[in-house]
Amino acid sequence: MCARKLASVLSLLCAMIACNCAQAQQGYTININLESATDTTFYLANYYGDKFFIADTSHGQPGKAQFIGLKPLKQGIYLLANAKKEKLIEFLVGNEQFFSITAGKDDSRPAVVVEGSIDSQLFFEHIALVNDSHRKIEDIKLLLDKSSLSETEKNHYLNQLDSINQSISDFRMEIISTYPTLLFTKILKAMEDPLIPEEIKNEQDLAYKYYKSNFWANVDISDERLILTPLLPMKLKTYFEQLVLPDADSVIKEVDALLGLTNGNEIMLDYLIWHFIAEYQTPKIMGLDKVFVHIVDQYVAKGKLGNLTPSIEKQLLERAGKMRRNLLGLKAPDMWLVDTTGNFRSFNEISNQFTVIIFWDQTCGHCKKEMETLSKLYQTNTYDLGVYAVNSTNDFEGWKRYLNEKKYPWLHVNGMKSMTEDFHNLYDIYSVPVIYLLDKKKNIIGKRISAEQLSSLMDNYLKTENK
After folding, report:
1. Using only C-alpha atoms, what is the Rg of the chain?
2. Which of 116, 228, 242, 291 has its CA 20 to 30 A from that of 206?
3. To which CATH superfamily is domain 25-116 assigned?
4. Sign of the CA dihedral 8, 13, 18, 23?
5. Mean pLDDT, contiguous 10-residue spans, the chain (467 residues)
């Protein structure tokens, strides 16, 4: 065989071997040996935000689990659970997905031995260092509590504490500098809080602004692997509940800024959009439903949300359509509904400083309690208050009998007979009771509140008006 043909054959063989090796490394094989366990059934589960989902199952020998798949696992934090779905051990799945973990109580070697995964190896080394450091710190704190310590001894122990904390920091920085793209590196960096400069630590406003503006500096929002950790939802909760003003426009600004940090990563963008949809469709704080409407308008309606079926898209658009008409600050949509005498009446007839619109039903126990609370507030004459009570049932006779018994001195109407659009759509009513509070100009200043909350809301409004 001539040299040229031999070289060609060798090249082909090398290519075939390389191809076979690449194919051999497709998928995953994870072997876990828990030397003290007796279970024979195990689950491999991955985090997805603050929840976790089963990814694979193993049946075999006591304490030994093997998970094999033809497709690579999504990278993130995984856990091993027993048949009762109790968490036994956590580990990382990064680029290397053919590895083994052995955990036992043999004092002659580390508690956990990892072969084939630098991510998980460093993960367990970090856990061991932190646990050992915390034990030392607790021992030193006990010594510091002694009242007989001299100043020199005190400083000695304080220096030891600093040294222990510095060793943890040095370990983390070594990993970050050595393995910049590693999954564990991204997790370590995201765990770090912004370090406030010494010169502004005692300046509360400056320290807050610095902390807030640098909160996401070490979090790679374009890295979808963070979705498969509980870290991201914790960071989102901290930022939006503790650092961002609970004002719709402020939240919208921060949501847009964070979504911009995804830098084209569609998986992360989808995750965050769905997170914010869940948070603000039924927000805990009044007025933040405007954030939901904004997200639907800017991301759902404009096709920026990927994993979306036509039916879900339609539901989101319809929901936002109902909510956008009754947002805080907007003029309340007019209603012309029939009263107990058969005449059509509007709440715009009410000339009081405040108008309460309450949607209720005389067969609803909670509604009755709200009406009684509202009646007590009304009778105090503390506020210049008018009430437009909208009954939501078609039992006209039962409605009239109940009102005749209670004699609430308000404007009563029934929503089943109307000259205007269905009140369910105008005010997004899907259950009762629901209370809206309007100012003199009939702008919405409170919504979906209880009757007990009305007085504080009106007090706050009056204080703001009088400034």
Report:
1. 31
2. 291
3. Transthyretin/hydroxyisourate hydrolase domain (2.60.40.180)
4. positive
5. 39 40 72 92 94 94 96 97 94 98 70 95 96 94 85 91 94 96 96 93 94 96 96 96 96 98 96 97 95 98 94 96 96 98 97 98 97 97 97 96 96 97 95 98 97 97 86
